[in-house]
Amino acid sequence: MEIENKSSNLGKDEILEAYQRIGNYLMKTPVHTSSTVNNLVGKNVFFKCDNFQKTGSFKARGALNAVLSKISRFDNVKKYSGFVTHSSGNHGTALAWACKTENIPCTVVVPKDTPLNKIESIKSYDSNLEFCEPNPQSRVQVANKLASEKNLLLVKPYDDYDVMAGQGTVAVEFLEQIPYLDAILVSVSGGGLISGISVYAKSVNPLIRIFAVEPVGKRLSECIKFKKRNLEDKEPAFLDTKAEGIRTEICGELTFPILSNYVDDVFTVSDEEMIEATKFVFKRMKMVIELSAGAAVAAVMSEKMKLNYPQLKNVGVILCGGNINIDKLPW
């Protein structure tokens, strides 16, 4: 079953409350730099390393805030038999971890083609695992069915204000660490991370640029231009990309209005560019990241960044996760 939040608003206060709520459970992730990247890009580039966060991605922030918020906000949460979600991997792992932290049963619905390393991560937190067909509709249908039949409380992976507030804590930390950022690049799937980051960052510094990074085929810039979440009014599908963490084609009903208001530009990167950027980080920065994070690295190193934004001097890049299958690297 799904419970609506008390408020439909996402603002600076909600994000700061989330930061206080989850702070004792999570690490303040570091910011790394690379002189090689700075020289290549012609800017000071700061990498916010949420690939080092609990469960290996930023998703721990939103999942934990959702669990703790719903426990504290709704007295009747106790009548449910646990939480359920659907995920491409990272959110499922994060919710499984958050539920285990609070001793609450968790069920995660994942597509059959989810990478083995992410399946094993979910299982490691004693979560129940359910498989579905590899398309967005199946994920949602199976999760809703389980919520109804097994009396579970649904936590959506991005279209939930508690989740977005948790993800926004990335920006709280980042702007404390590097307060003079001119722009932040964020990889986008359903839109929860960029919604939280943009709301907080723009409230602190209205002049900061928020750049969305997408795989080929998402067409987010057109969606924003025409103020239409689903350009062709079709059933959503997964994009044809090796970056399974950002293959959601259509942003959420709650996230899209937020990111439409705050995103300043969209960078589209190919799988080849993501792979090369990810390899660069492995080899030169000695960090493990997944392709979803590599997308943002590719964007900051792109010709578009050099040609269109020469005035930007200090640019932040969110390394959103590090859950890549080491036994089956995409190159």
UniProtKB/TrEMBL annotation:
GO terms for biological process: D-serine biosynthetic process; L-serine metabolic process. It catalyses: L-serine = pyruvate + NH4(+); D-serine = pyruvate + NH4(+); L-serine = D-serine. It comes from Brachionus calyciflorus. Belongs to the serine/threonine dehydratase family. It comes from the Eukaryota. Its EC number is 4.3.1.17, 4.3.1.18, 5.1.1.18. Gene3D superfamilies: 3.40.50.1100. Residues 28-321 form the Tryptophan synthase beta chain-like PALP domain. Keywords: Lyase, Magnesium, Pyridoxal phosphate. One of its GO terms (molecular function) is magnesium ion binding. Its cofactor is Mn(2+); Ca(2+); pyridoxal 5'-phosphate; Mg(2+). Catalyzes the synthesis of D-serine from L-serine. D-serine is a key coagonist with glutamate at NMDA receptors. Has dehydratase activity towards both L-serine and D-serine. This is Serine racemase.
